[in-house]
Design the sequence.
């Protein structure tokens, strides 16, 4: 693949990958047989959401779940589109913005609100927002009346490339992130790239960390492409954003189709997350550390651990660290205001990770960029050393 020496004004599609469906939208299929669904990627999809949903779920009552910030930005356009489709539309449910809404108390409040609106089994829940709303809404749909259909309308880069796809839903616990939840696949994902224009730079960067992950797992060519086009993507280049979302969704869809419930292969998508979730838990889910920031730090630690174990060239770990730092993502757990964090405390959080089997944590390690693999054969002393080094910066 030819790598540009400078960031172009509009990113070209990745060499060797199928082109998008056109300038307006691309479609990625999640192939799960009768439960399969489309991911539509492009601008102004919220304006066409009513029609897109009606084509797949005609005549069904609809109810929107969103958060207060997204409601101000995008709810009026979505409600107009849904109403114009002719479907019955219930009063939307709005929760406070932020990770703190992803907890059991808020879930109970959402369920009460949905039931008070006259929810029935034909009702479709439309989750409009970032990863918090998508996870919370998907879990509510999974348990409401023992399961109703839902549609994801992700409005952040992180949710468009990761959390809206694959059916992982859930809430956090005092014991750790996403420990309470269910696998419940959406019926449709509408990734409106225009919503990314409303995001603060910090949120775009947080989503970008998840984009980088796909290059590190098994697509070194994509990582090459990101090194050339990542700055433009973050700065707002619409073509670069759409291309990165498409490639990320295709990568995740392929893995989910082979391992829907994370019994093996899908664990690769957790590269950096075992470390990252521990950082989020220690930070208290209050916004001091965003999920994507924690994942960025966690991916660096996963590569550093791989280097320490003699599995990965040090140059690849440095290449990852350099790219993340160049675009503005954190690469270590050292940060003003995080005094008091210890390797021991982070290890305690990691011991509650969802990938623990028979008391051992399964780590996602790497033999190099694009060569991730799973391993439960990791010495805790090596993990502690990597944590300590990251805390020192």
Sequence:
């Amino acid at each position: 693949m030819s790598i540009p020496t400078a960031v172009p004004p509009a990113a070209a599609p990745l060499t060797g990958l199928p082109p998008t469906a056109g300038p307006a939208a691309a479609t990625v299929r999640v192939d799960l047989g009768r439960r399969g669904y489309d991911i539509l990627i492009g601008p102004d999809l919220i304006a066409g959401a009513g029609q897109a949903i009606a084509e797949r779920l005609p005549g069904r009552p609809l109810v929107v779940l969103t958060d207060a910030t997204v409601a101000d930005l995008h709810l009026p356009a979505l409600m107009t589109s849904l109403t114009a489709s002719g479907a019955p539309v219930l009063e939307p449910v709005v929760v406070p913005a932020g990770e703190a809404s992803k907890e059991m108390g808020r879930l109970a409040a959402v369920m009460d609100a949905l039931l008070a609106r006259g929810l029935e089994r034909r009702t479709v829940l439309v989750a409009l927002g970032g990863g918090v709303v998508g996870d919370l809404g998907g879990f509510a749909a999974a348990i409401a009346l023992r399961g109703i259909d839902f549609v994801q309308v992700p409005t952040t880069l992180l949710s468009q490339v990761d959390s809206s796809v694959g059916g992982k839903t859930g809430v956090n616990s005092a014991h750790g992130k996403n420990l309470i939840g269910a696998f419940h696949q959406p019926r449709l994902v509408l990734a409106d790239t225009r919503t990314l224009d409303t995001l603060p730079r910090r949120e775009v960067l947080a989503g970008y960390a998840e984009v980088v992950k796909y290059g590190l797992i098994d697509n070194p060519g994509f990582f090459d492409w990101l090194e050339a086009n990542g700055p433009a993507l973050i700065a707002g280049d619409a073509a670069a954003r759409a291309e990165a979302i498409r490639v990320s969704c295709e990568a995740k869809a392929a893995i989910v189709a082979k391992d829907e419930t994370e019994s093996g292969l899908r664990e690769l998508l957790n590269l950096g997350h075992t470390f990252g979730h521990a950082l989020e838990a220690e930070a208290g889910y209050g916004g001091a550390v965003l999920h994507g920031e924690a994942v960025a730090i966690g991916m660096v630690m996963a590569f550093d651990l791989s280097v320490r174990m003699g599995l990965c060239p040090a140059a690849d770990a440095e290449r990852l660290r350099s790219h993340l730092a160049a675009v503005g993502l954190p690469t270590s757990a050292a940060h003003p205001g995080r005094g008091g964090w210890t390797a021991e405390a982070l290890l305690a959080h990691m011991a509650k990770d969802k990938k623990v089997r028979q008391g051992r944590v399964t780590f996602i390690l790497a033999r190099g960029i694009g060569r991730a693999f799973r391993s439960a054969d990791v010495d805790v002393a090596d993990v502690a050393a990597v944590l300590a080094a990251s805390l020192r910066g």
In short: The first strand starts at residue 26 and ends at 30. Residues 114 and 142 are 13 Å apart (CA to CA). The chain has 13 helices and 13 strands. The chain has a mean pLDDT of 92.
